[in-house]
Design goal:
The complex is a heterodimer of chains A (189) and B (194). Chain A has 189 residues and is of the alpha/beta class. Chain A has seven helices and seven strands, in the order E-E-H-E-H-H-E-H-E-H-E-E-H-H. Chain B has two domains: 48 residues, no CATH class; 141 residues, AhpD-like (Up-down Bundle), CATH 1.20.1290.10. Chain B has ten helices and no strands. In chain B, helix 4 packs across helix 10. The chains are: A alpha/beta (189), B mainly alpha (194). At the A-B interface, helix 3 of A face helix 1 and helix 3 of B.
Chain lengths: 189, 194
């Protein structure tokens, strides 16, 4: 049995090829955890089982439609599956809803990342429909895992992200007698 | 203009039904400098229109009352047409305007009474007509909610406590009161830059 990686754990280290563009010569780039941490931003990584299937493009297009909602929340959005970068590229080139994608599609061809995350379905060895919210320190703050045929609600992901990011930093929120908080306390809490 | 290349600003404009040519220098300046606050502001405003204890129409009417209260005509016009699109009637919109006007009177007057606490001022009748409070077409409860929101903006303690109290007596939940005041507060963050 898989153990799905959970809250408070560090997101595993990875270095994978991703599809970032349809422009010739600029299709692929490498994505890594170090690079993600270097941006100082949050990360939402969402997984789907297989390219070229039906539920997926709708859901991926919905994430893409909300791309600026994520970027306004200082969040890097990454889509991922265990398909290779060439399959990703072919899918993007062929599906009208996927041509204008603004986020990278990560290719976990060796399935090592899905394995470490604990989201690899036992029989087919494809990823469950999992979504991770990872904070700028690389700590997993939210995990949702859906069965293969269940679509996601992007608004719910944004709602959770808002809740995680809305620390009440204003001193007028302190009650008398409480110790004052420093920003690092709040971030680490 | 460089500011208009800022995607956050463009989204803000479209969320609130604003137009490019009526944008304030303040917002343009935040956009040009890629201020983090502009992103937070947009998210807060968008969320404020979808709090779970208010309908979208109610949120828009509260936001509209803030824009009227704060004399931001362009924003008021935009919010008014968004509220219309959610079914707000002309007489309801007129009542929001009237409510803001009356509450501005009361906020100043009752705040004075509250500040001074002297018998003469407490006991002498105010002699101010407030006919619209009797049978509001928006309904007593929502009229109270608007009154509370405007009083919170204008900082009248007596008015805030009185309207909050009367809302709870009408059966309004604290969660709904909270959402209304949060919505008004967040829109103040927009009017001050408009």
């Amino acid at each position: 049995m898989n153990r799905i990686i959970s809250l408070g754990e560090s997101f595993p280290t990875f270095e994978k090829t991703s599809v970032t563009s349809l422009e010739k010569g600029k299709e692929f780039s490498t994505l890594s955890l170090d690079q993600q941490l270097g941006t100082g931003k949050w990360m939402v990584m969402f997984w789907w089982p297989k390219d070229f299937t039906f539920v997926c493009p709708t859901e991926i297009a919905e994430f893409n439609k909300n791309y600026s909602e994520f970027s306004d929340r200082d969040t890097n959005l990454i889509g991922a599956s265990t398909d290779s970068e060439f399959v990703h590229l072919a899918w993007r080139q062929n599906h009208p809803d996927l041509k204008g994608l603004r986020f990278p599609m990560l290719a976990d061809t060796s399935k090592s990342l899905a394995e470490e995350l604990g989201i690899l379905e036992a029989n087919e060895k494809v990823a469950y429909r999992a979504t991770f919210i990872v904070d700028p320190q690389g700590i997993i703050r939210w995990v949702s895992v859906y069965d293969l045929n269940v679509g996601r609600n992007v608004e719910e992901v944004l709602r959770v992200l808002d809740a995680l990011q809305t620390d009440e930093l204003c001193p007028c929120n302190w009650k008398r007698g409480e110790e004052t908080l420093s920003i690092s306390d709040v971030v680490e809490a | 203009m460089i500011a208009l290349e800022n995607e956050t600003l463009q989204n803000l404009i479209s969320d609130l039904n604003l137009t490019n040519d009526t944008l304030s220098d303040h917002l343009n300046h935040l956009a040009i400098n890629e201020s983090k606050h502009l992103r937070d502001l947009r998210i807060n405003l968008k969320n404020a229109l979808s709090f779970s204890n208010l309908t979208r129409k109610e949120s828009l009417l509260i936001a509209f009352s803030v824009a009227v209260n704060d004399r931001t005509k362009n924003l008021a016009d935009s919010l008014e047409s968004l509220a219309r699109a959610e079914g707000a009637t002309e007489s309801e919109l007129a009542e929001v305007r009237a409510c803001v006007s009356l509450l501005n009177v009361n906020n100043v007057f009752y705040r004075f009474r509250h500040f001074t606490k002297k018998d003469y001022y407490q006991q002498t009748p105010a002699g101010i007509k407030m006919g619209i409070m009797i049978n509001p077409i928006l309904g007593k409860e929502f009229f109270e909610l608007l009154s509370l929101a405007v009083s919170a903006l204008n900082g009248c303690e007596l008015c805030v406590n009185a309207h909050e109290n009367s809302l709870l007596q009408l059966g309004t939940s604290e969660a709904r009161v909270y959402d209304a005041v949060r919505c008004a507060a967040i829109f103040r963050g927009m009017t001050v830059l408009s």
